[in-house]
Amino acid sequence: MNRLCILAVFSVALLLGACDDGNKNAEPAAPTEAAPAAAPTPTTPATPEAAPEVSDAAPAAEEPGAPTGFDINQIPLTDKDIGAFPFFTPPEGYKYENVKTKDFDRYYFAVREKTLVPIEGRTFRTSVENKKPDSHGHPEILLVERNYENAITTLGGVKVFNGKFPREAYQALSDEDGRRYGPELRNDPRQTYVIRKLGVEIWVEITCNSAQCKYVVAQKGEMKQTVGLVPASAMKTALDKEGHIALYINFDVDKATIKPDSQATVEEIAKLLESYPDLNIRIEGHTDNTGEATHNQTLSENRAAAVFGSLLAKGIPQSRLSSQGFGATKPIAENQSEEGRAKNRR
Fold first, then answer.
1. Alpha carbon distance 286, 331 (integer Å)
2. pLDDT digits over 198-227, tens only?
3. Taking a C-beta distance cutoff of 8 angstroms, is the pair 299, 258 a contact?
4. 89 with 43: CB under 8 angstroms?
């Protein structure tokens, strides 16, 4: 009797691997690198003027990009040419260092005390380094802040936050989101700006301390869907040829709830099992090493069990299914980079 191994790459991929003894683990496919962002377009320095501000309301909503505590409609639309992403060059004598550009990511912007607005879309994060002679790399904080403020407000942007933001608000984020802010949890003064143009929403954050300044910009937008549904027939073909197949299954952050966009993939797995009644499957859950080990172990078990339960609900006999979680105990890549951690979340 054939036995099918299913290795679940949670938030990354679901791996189906055919095996005889149930002990072979399939390697997940390497992630595709995002295309490089366009080079910054120079912006002409603007005449200094005070940045308009908007009022705060109730707390922000939890869903990404849909805050209720901040009314985006308070920000007037601009008819100015806002240039190309990432929109602004560093001040004269400064340089962008440690640039991180992503075609789709999530970043949390401060809009009021203890309220963060999650914006998803294209992001650009960089340090603004002072390269002037005899500066010793220390930023001229007011000069940097005022340069960005003038440039942004001249384009019709509005300042929606100005001041220190409590560290615990970032720490209260889920483990998945919180680790993105590891080195940025310092309680440094920051400014948040929003620029709205018809069909375009741009968020900017400027953060400075005595050592450096940081510039973050996010252009809100939808993710380009690049993963398609693998039909049951293609699963069987791949299993016969390769002995394993990678399928993408997404879960809610830090939960074992399968997202609606992944239910169709689970349905195809059920169709595969219905078509080949001698085929048994094993579902294995794995995590990276971020967070507490006991929590990771439980999460991996629960997510594997969630796929198990979904297949039971579709009429697959329990005798043909098994599930197991391994937490972070069986990594297939190093955990020092996000790419490696993504491979280990399977």
1. 8
2. 989 999 999 998 888 999 999 998 877 666
3. no
4. yes
